[in-house]
Amino acid sequence: MKFPALSTSKTLNFPANLIEKQKIPFQIFLRKISVQGKTNRSVKSVQALSKNNSGSISIATTVTEERDRLFDSLRNEKGWIHFVGIGGCGLSALAMLALKQGYEVSGSDIEWSSFMDGLQEAGALLHIGHSVENMQRNAASRLPDAIVVSSAIPQHNVEILYAKSVGVPVYKRDHWLGKLTQGYNLIAVSGSHGKSTTASMLAYVLDGMGDNLTAVVGAHVPQFSGGNIIFGDGWNFVLEADEYDGCFLGLSPYIAIVTNLDWEHVDIFQNEEAVKATFRKFLSRIRVGGHLILCGDSEGAYSLLTDGKQPIGSHNWRGLRSRPLEKCSDSYNITTYGTTSFNDWHASSIRPNLKGGCDYTLCHQGCSVVDISLQIPGVYNVLNSLAVIATVVTLFSDQSPISNTINRVSLHLNNFIGIKRRFEMIGTIYGCHIYDDYAHHPTEVSAVIQAARQRFPNKSLLVVFQPHTYSRLAALKDDFANALSDADQVVVTGVYAAREIDEQSVGGRELAATIIGPPSEYIPTLDDVVDKLAFQISGKPHWNIVVLTLGAGNITTVGPKLLYELRRRLQVNS
After folding, report:
1. Deepest in the core among 56, 120, 298, 574, taking most CB within 10 A?
2. What pLDDT, on the 0 to 100 scale, is given for residue 307?
3. H-type helices in 371-469, by residue range?
4. Do 399 and 516 reside in the same domain of the chain?
5. Residue 140 domain-assigned?
6. Which CATH number belongs to the domain containing residue 276 in this structure?
7. pLDDT band at 66 (very low <50, low <70, confident <90, very high)
8. What is the residue-averaged pLDDT of the chain?
9. What is the C-alpha radius of gyration for the chain, rounded to an integer number of angstroms?
10. Structural domain range at position 504
């Protein structure tokens, strides 16, 4: 691995211009309408008709506006919210936040997920399978005040159709998030990869610094008492902002972070240009006087700054990639970060540390500032931490000396242990270390393999990869093969179809046959993978090996099962 060289300077010059934020308290409220003594959900949208200047009729009040009024009325009343697709990482967090806010919460999904455990413990009423009965209580005399729908749920879902037929307001996740975050200093963490870790790291640091923030993250965070949320009453709201289905286009962030940009969600975006177009729309949502914090190392993300427009005051913008200046069309400020010195903030002298993570020297505009130490491995986590530093300085440099702010941030970054399913240690037995990671895109697979090499430079690396969705595998098969070729041994399982039907000619077998270099094998079922690896490893119990299970599906069950089976065969107590 080649790390960037250290840049040194004798002086440090920090920008001082931060925009004063207008702070407006806000909370979601739903309206109940009483008709003849009963709560009635059959509220029809009122469409007021008026004549415009040309004499034609126009619709002045839309369905969206009616939903907005429902959101904002009767502020002292909490209602019943039903979440369709509640088992997913995104919607489960919104459901947990609604519980914390005092709402009655129910939800449904096609199968149980680990996110639903915490929701059930917190008081949510959960259903497996979608049915009209999930939304009816008291012999159908009581219905939800609103339903919120995951982006992964089709519009012909029975619960959506029923809600519309009886007048229950239906909110897609983007509209719900937009209303949820109004009135806050919204910090929206976007990007093709690294959103969950960056948002979690940022929220953890802010919380540790005493900021009474609210945060919603699409992953379980062991250091959050709320699992995947923090519920506070301050002005800052950290949100993992997902580009899938254009979900983040309903937001109006004060600060937008773009960690990187890649061709991802190939079932939604035809190519990388389509992804860029959606991100450009997202950047247009940044509030005037707000801030864009962007990874300058990512070619895709950096291209968002060079879209044929030269920001005011810039020099050689499209040429030598000199450091971007602070203003973009007098709309919002820009800060870049990365591992190269043309960025405003960059990491130099990146090196492994004794905690299994990374140390580096933080630099600002070419000047060394302080050494940073992380417990979590990988250059990608160095980049994530740089995004956090740039964001916190943006938020608080007008409240305390920047050097004090950075020192406090450094302390909390050092204590951050990561999130679930991101290079998560499952267990160790003799010379075998078992880790699990959510990586399901070639860029992510390559990054986590690199992190494993960093932490365990002298161990063999056996990767078990479960492709996630047929469309992604078909579009990126060669990239997956290249990324997996950096392992010492590869096992490819059957495809985790998720929301898709097998209509592709490419599967796990074809991917395994494409990998050049390490021995690669296709084993379709996860139980057979466990048996195969348990037999192989138990025959050489002191073999120095790292088993890394990768994928966004149920591959996460392999690690614990393998550890149990190895302990049983080797007669080791847990």
Report:
1. 298
2. 60
3. 379-396, 402-415, 442-455
4. no
5. yes
6. 3.40.1190.10
7. low
8. 84
9. 25
10. 424-570
